[in-house]
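We modelled the chain as a single entity of 96 amino acids. Its sequence is:
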Amino acid sequence: MAFDSSAVSRLAHLARIGVDEKTASSLGSELEHILAMVDQLREADVAGVAPMAHPLELTQRMRPDEVTESPERDSYQENAPRVQDGVYVVPKVLGG
């Protein structure tokens, strides 16, 4: 497919990007090269190839899920103005 400067200008308008006339002529040939590469990719035989999320088979190293801090809720709640049944009591914010 040939891209002349008017076709490039139309595409630029649809994409909402500003392209001047000088740049439009060079972009036409670049777009032709891109589409030629896409055509080459379409010719590749991908039968039996499963889609991949990432080209490398990597696994995430995970650390053990171990508790490293002791619960100190009681000592924190000693400084709270009001606590009831292990939770902080605060003034009502929303009317209703």
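As a brief sanity check on the tokenised model: The CA atoms of residues 20 and 93 lie 57 Å apart. The radius of gyration is 31 Å.
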